[in-house]
Design a protein that fits this description.
Elements: H1 3-16, H2 31-48, H3 50-60, H4 65-75, H5 78-87, H6 90-97, H7 102-111, H8 118-121, H9 126-138, H10 142-149, H11 154-161, H12 166-174, H13 181-188, H14 191-203, H15 207-215, H16 219-230, H17 234-246, H18 251-256
Helix pairs in contact: 1-2, 3-5, 4-6, 5-7, 7-9, 9-11, 10-12, 12-14, 12-15, 14-17
Length: 260
């Protein structure tokens, strides 16, 4: 099963609320088909109760923002709050976002479809984006973070990248909806984060994740990764070499990491 298909299966599992292993019967389905299925399921779930969410969104227009924020966090389950937010006027939604707690906002984000609300997400302040990202990372919500990376602004992305460890960045990068942003993320990494990425790949057997990163880097960032690998401790270098020898990393990945 390709890395792309594995990532898509993880995203689909998150969407329907099951473990990826429960969808083992779909392992032979191409990544593009899994992505299309995920989109169809998301749309069906949204449309099924859209009339209800629309009514709640309509009511919120007449409630002062401070009161609406308190009522939302106290009375609305995160799933309902997420669907309502997707139907709100952007400035109203962003005003509410600024007034609710980071922990509740993370739960709302986990239930939201970023592709349905880019007009809202792009208006959220970078510090709030980073706060939610850190909260989601604590919960291991890699698929959720990966979805939002496609829609946040560059400032929001930069703020978020700064709060993640190398291991977290590897796991997030593997499930990005927009892999073209991996190159952007790589440019934002500190040397410490790059070192953490190399260590985490070996410690947690994250070779598909490292492969996804390596294959989407610019030549300059690939050179940087190879340079830091060359200067890494012996154990880290040996783990990467072993992964390359076993086929866990492709010949192309090995070349980009300076192993050939």
């Amino acid at each position: 099963m390709s890395g792309n298909a594995t990532a898509e299966l993880q995203k689909l599992a998150h969407q329907v609320g099951v473990d990826a292993t429960d969808l083992g019967f779909l392992t032979s389905v191409p990544a593009d088909d899994l992505r299309a299925l995920r989109g169809q399921i998301g749309e069906a779930l949204f449309q099924a109760d859209k009339h209800y969410f629309a009514k709640v969104a309509g009511l919120s227009k007449n409630i002062p923002a401070p009161i609406a924020a308190k009522v939302t966090e106290f009375a609305l389950p995160p799933l309902i709050a997420a669907r309502v937010a997707e139907l709100l006027e952007p400035n109203k939604a962003v005003d509410l976002v600024g007034r609710i707690s980071g922990s509740y906002l993370a739960k709302v984000a986990a239930a939201m479809d970023p592709g349905r609300a880019p007009h809202i997400i792009e208006k959220i302040p970078p510090d709030k984006v980073a706060l939610v990202g850190a909260e989601l990372a604590k919960q291991g919500e890699w698929v959720v973070i990966g979805g939002f990376v496609s829609t946040v602004t560059n400032d929001g992305l930069h703020a978020s990248v700064g709060v993640f460890t190398g291991e977290q960045l590897l796991r997030i990068g593997f499930v990005l909806d927009d892999t073209s942003r991996l190159a952007d993320i790589a440019e934002m990494l500190t040397d410490k984060q790059v070192d953490e990425i190399l260590v985490a790949a070996g410690e947690h057997d994250l070779w598909p994740e490292l492969s996804e990163l390596a294959s989407n880097l610019t030549d300059a960032e690939a050179t940087r990764l190879a340079t830091q690998l060359a200067a890494a401790p012996d154990a880290v270098r040996e783990a990467v070499r072993s992964a390359a020898a076993s086929g866990a990393l492709s010949a192309a990945d090995s070349a980009r990491l300076g192993l050939t």
